[in-house]
Amino acid sequence: MDSVAQRLSAVGAGAALELRGVTRLFGALAALTDVTITVRPGERRAVLGSNGAGKTTLFNCITGDFPPSSGTIRFFGEDVTHFPPYERIRRGLRRTYQISALFPGLTVQDNVYLACRGVSRGRFSFLRPGQNDALMHAADSLVHAVHLAAVKDQRVAELAHGQQRQLEIALALAGAPRFVLFDEPAAGLSPTERAELVEILTSLPAHIGYIIIEHDMDVALRVVESVTMMHNGRIFKEGLPQEIQSDPEVQELYLGGGHE
Amino acid sequence: MSVTHDARVQIHKPASTGQRPAVRGWPDINNPAAWVVAVILLIMPLIANGFFLIEIFATTLILGTIALSLMFLAGYGGMVSLMQLTIAGFAAYMVAVFGVSGNANISLGWPWWLAVPMALALATIFGTLGGALAVRTEGIYTIMITLAIGAAFYYFTNQNWAIFNGHTGINTVATPHFWGVNWRSDIPFYYIVLAVAALCYFAVDYISRAPFGLALQGVRDNPRRMAALGFNVNAHRVAAYAVASFIAGLAGVLQVWNYRQISPGSVSVGACIDVLIIAVVGGITRPIGPYIGALVFVLLRTFALDFLVKIGLDGNRFRLLIGLGFLAIVFWSSDGVIGLWQRWCQGRRPTANRPAGGHGHG
């Protein structure tokens, strides 16, 4: 098997996600500087880094929430740099948000149903879904899979924090995802909920790759095969989880001192 | 166990599980109060004289339908549009311009069954274009743009004589006569207005649970997440303006038939704001709210004058009553009269019975 460094540097049409020289400026502040990353289909990777390292900005550039100031982004070989977010999502990209981005006025079922509808036809349909609506059943399955069946008719505003985080993940798994960006999915979860999260992540079908931003090393390093360290908006180091964990420079920067 | 795997297997075998009552019934079908209201509305010509039938109830239903178009945009889409009355007024002008009126030099003299579809189509296009401008902004800027469109239309109608006949407007607009019936005589006209209002009410309620309406509520709650779920948020917003414009246009056609004339005074900025007041006082969380707001507004407008004179005040101060009512509603019940009603009902019921579904029609 190739070394991870070789695999990561391999650039080709086979990549699920390929960023070249991506820079994002906010005024004079460079949140991302010349970021180049290649992720294979099905690869699971963690992005680590302290607050302000540019992790969430990286996600925002990949999904198009904030387009990059310069550089190119390819998704399964297609240049999506100038696509609006919804066009990227329809091609199989998904994301979750660090702070739950849900629809508090709608029920759990309707939230998941919208996620299913967003990546299929009939977004503008004026006809109510019938008893045998395929998307309604798909939504049901997703609601069950993230253990929210008992509260599916409740408004999201009434859910507990942990349940909202589970719903956040369900929304990102609707339809046929090919690559998912998880932004701190474990934030605010109890140890039991974290275990459930790890189970959900590890049981995703093998063809679905993801990048996960996670501060909890117990979660992050159990569900990924490679790690990217970011610092001050740049890629600082890439490697296997154990390489990164034992790297003295990384420990100095991130894990060092009072890491729990 | 695999999350997405499960989901996609279900797509291919949709009929396997039937645990969900996927289709909601018509609203209020189990609510006796709704049936009572429906029966009263249907037999109204037996119990009300011509004045009440037209000046109170038909006017309420027309104003309520205009406010319903605002409720659709604001309640489901989170977009407060102050141009809904302008769109209705535009449709009213188009009926007068394309149809038959006393101003023969302006009106083209088309029969009503050609003039009305034309007016509806043009009003929908007008509102959709205005919406396409407004969706480029959010919040207070949407209000400003739609208010600017309303104000511009008002001043334009005042000054344009070739089409809108300036400040005198267009008078003696013809109303439909067919099958030997004068459809503008009180009782037939009341039923036409009732039918159109009911149609709009049920259509809005139906759409609110259809994919388009759910997506619109998603856009209201979190537009950014909607984009991250594959929705073109602005296209959805513009489509919502198109639907709301069509509803407002229908009400505008009824309005010009009701008064048989249309003039700039009917599309003034004050009238635009009245629509907002009606919707907010009634409540913008449900389609019934605008009709309740319109009834309160029309009753106050009609009777507050006499009432104020009786207690020794200037009758022209009826707007003061409306203003005070508006203030009270905004302070104590952000979801309007229907919000008060709902809380009162819930207070009388054991809390366990509280409906779980968010904006369901309990």
Descriptive account of the structure:
The complex is a heterodimer of chains A (260) and B (362). With 260 residues, chain A is of the alpha/beta class. Chain A is 33% helix and 23% strand. Residues 8-12 of chain A have low confidence and may be disordered. Chain B has a domain at 47-267. Chains A and B meet through helix 3, helix 4 and helix 5 of A and helix 1, helix 9, helix 10 and helix 11 of B.
Structural class of chain A: alpha/beta
Unreliable spans of chain B are: 1-25, 351-362
Count helical runs of chain A: 10
**Sheet with the most strands of chain A?**
6 strands, mixed
- SS elements, strand count of chain B: 2
Gross morphology of chain A is globular
Per-chain topology:
The complex is a heterodimer of chains A (260) and B (362).
Chain A: H1 4-9, E1 17-26, E2 29-39, E3 44-48, H2 55-63, E4 70-75, E5 78-79, H3 85-90, E6 93-95, H4 108-118, H5 134-145, H6 161-172, E7 179-183, H7 191-202, E8 209-213, H8 217-220, E9 226-231, E10 234-239, H9 241-246, H10 248-255
Parallel strand pairs in A: 3-8, 3-9, 6-7, 7-8
Antiparallel strand pairs in A: 1-2, 1-4, 4-5, 9-10
Helix pairs in contact in A: 4-5, 4-6
Chain B: H1 3-12, H2 32-42, H3 44-47, H4 50-77, H5 84-98, H6 112-134, H7 140-159, E1 177-178, E2 181-182, H8 186-208, H9 211-221, H10 223-227, H11 233-259, H12 269-282, H13 288-310, H14 318-332, H15 336-348
Antiparallel strand pairs in B: 1-2
Helix pairs in contact in B: 4-8, 4-11, 4-12, 4-13, 5-6, 5-7, 5-11, 6-7, 6-11, 8-11, 9-11, 12-13, 13-14
